[in-house]
Structure formats: C-alpha cells, structure tokens
Structures
1.
Amino acid sequence: MLQRLVLHKFISATFLLLFITCTTLGDDSRKVVIVHSYEENHVCGTPQHEGIIQGLEEGGWKEGENLKVTTFYMDTKKTYTSAEQIAERGRLALSAVKDAKPDLVITIDDNAAKTVMLPLAGSDTPVVFSGMNGQPENYNKITHFMDSRKKPNSNVTGVYEKLHLNTSIKVVKAVMPDMKKVLAITDTSPTGNAITIQLEQELAQEKPIVPCEIVKVSSFEEFKELIQTKVNTDPEIGAIYSMVLSVKDAEGKTHTAPDVFRWQIANCKKPSMALNYFFAKLGLFGGAAVDFKAMGKQAGAMGAKVLNGKKAGNIPIEDARKYAIVFNTERAKDLGIQIPFEILGAADFVYDKIELK
C-alpha cells in the first residue's frame, strides 16, 4: 500500500512537472503570420520566406519550438489580379491576422504591404515588410507609418528591394565589351509600375556605363512584338532587363514570370539580366541579381529583434543589402556568349541548365 502511494505521488509529481514545463514553453512561444502577395511556391516569394525563417531562427526564434508560423498566400499575381480582387484578398488576409492574434506580421511584396501592412499601421501589431518595390514615402502618404526611413517611430519597419541595376549592367558589360545599350522592360501591374519608378531613380542616382532605355508593356502580345520587332532586330541593344512578371494576353489570361520567361528563352536573341538569382536558374542569362533569400533573412532578423522586445519603429528601414552575381552557362551557350573564366569564377551562383527549356 505504501509503495502504491509513493508511486502515485511520483507519477502525479511527474505529470505536474511536465504540465508546468509545457505551460512555460507555451508562455514563451510567439506567433508570426507571413502574408505573401504571391501564390504558394512563387519564384520571388519562396526564397524570401525561407530567408525570413532563417533570420528569425538565428535571432532565437525557431519554428516548431518557440515559434508558430502561419502563412497566407494572397495569390494576387496569377489568380486575383484586378484591383477589386487584390483588395478583397487583403481583407481576407487581415481577417486571418486578426484571428491568429500574432505577435508579429511579416508582409512579402507590395500588394501585401498596401492591403495588410498599411491597415495595421498605428495598431498594436508590429509589422515587418520584405521586398517592397514601391517607395516607402509614397505609401506613407496613403497611411502614415514612418517619420523617416532612419527612424520610422511607429509599429512598422522593413526591407526595401534595391534592384542593383547599374551593378548588373557593369557585370554584363564586362562579359560583352561591345554592348552599346540595355533595354529594360516592365509591365503595368502595381509591382511593374513600382519597379519602373525604382529603375528611373537608380538611373538618376548613377549614370550607367551604357544607356538604358525603359519600356513598359501592357499585354503579353505587346511584349512578344517588342522582342521580335525591336530587341532581336536592333543591333544597338546588347541586352535586356526583363521584369515582366504579371501580364495578361488578349483572352484575359494572366501570365506570370515562368510563362513569360519560357517564351522569351525560346524566342529572344539577346541575353537578359536577371532581377533575382532564381530567374537565372530558370534560364535567364544573369548579371548582378537581387538575392531574395538574403533579403528575406534581413527582414527575418528585424522580426527577431521585435520578438525579442525591440519596438519596430526604432528599427531603421533598410535597403536590401546583398546582391548575387549569377550566370546561366547553358543560356550563354545558346546565345553564343563566352563568359571569361575570371568573371565566371567570381560568380556567386552558376547554373548549367535551363529549367524552363
């Protein structure tokens, strides 16, 4: 009887200890909601997400241990592309945020920033944005969320997506010394319009070593015609900077980056600088590309600081710091371009296959 009583007390004490331990872990854990403008597995969203998780973990917050991560994919690049649909997806994302009651919200890309970050500005929910192409100052005119980039002084901070255009031109010019001109091609989507402004600003800040013209297309057919009738036939154009990421065709079907790049690789006779390193993996020629994973990691590190007790408004808004020199050697071979060994050896990523072929 005594042995049973002792055993009962031991078991009770053990369960009490486990309960206290689990309760303590639960009290210390945090909740984060990541809202993507993109659909799941998007070529721009996925590497940012991976970087965010890495940045949070290096800051002491590991998913599944002391961190619960919920993800909402707005899918506004491929499926819900009209202004009304984007607004509705933003409302649904905000509803998911309110249900989750997170300690932190992280937005990826501009549609999420406009429809989720801005409505949360001034609230008790800290927000970190990643991959913002639009100028923070322009968003601030819609809803005030910062006094300045150096000191936002609210509940919002994040990482602005610097394109590194001039660096990319220098890299491609080193490979192709005879290059006389670059044609940058954007689209008329909200992100496309923001990228156009970014390009104009970067060109104004630093004169490129060769002229760079910006052209905006409003349909897939217009893009195809531009490639076939101008890019392929104009000897002055040595390379393009293709940033047509969401464009409709005559039947109203939306084509995202992989669709556009697949056609481009098969039909364009000039190399294309890659906006991010993953685009080179898909089959674009390369250059100095935005390192999306590093940009996400930068945002994740900011998020970790917030979870560790720092006010988001006391963390300066930063430019994406890191770019990657990338090349796709199969695409170079298709175009008859020989990349010098010393330049290839200095690259961060070299891909020898075209994934979209």
2.
Amino acid sequence: MTPAQHELQAVIRTIFAEALGSEIGVNDDFFAMGGDSLAAERVLAALSDHLSQDLPGWALLDYPSATALAIALCP
C-alpha cells in the first residue's frame, strides 16, 4: 500500500477507510473497493466538514482515489 504523501491525502484515505469499513490505498478507486452512493455521501460530508467548504456531489465520481481527490482539492 502506497503511503500518503501529504496531510490532505492522508485525511481523505482515512475518511475513505471509515466509510468502507476497511483499509484503502491512496491510489485505490473508492468505488472499485466497494464504495456505493451512501458511502460516497458520508465521504463528501466528512470532507466538507474537515475543509469547511461544500463539495459538489460529482467530486468523488471524477476523482475516486485519495490521490486524485487531494490534487483536485489543492489550489
């Protein structure tokens, strides 16, 4: 399993793991690892709380790994 490269990536991976109930690598696809629409909503809500900003519902569909989502969220 590839380790997180920075804090946001680690936070996203932790939130993914909590939503899935299992470990997930930073490059693993959230949906391929068993994520469904309800788990995705939990992820988006947790990330929105952590970042203090609303995230669009499509964010996880377009960026389904912790690495991709972290890159997309970093300005």
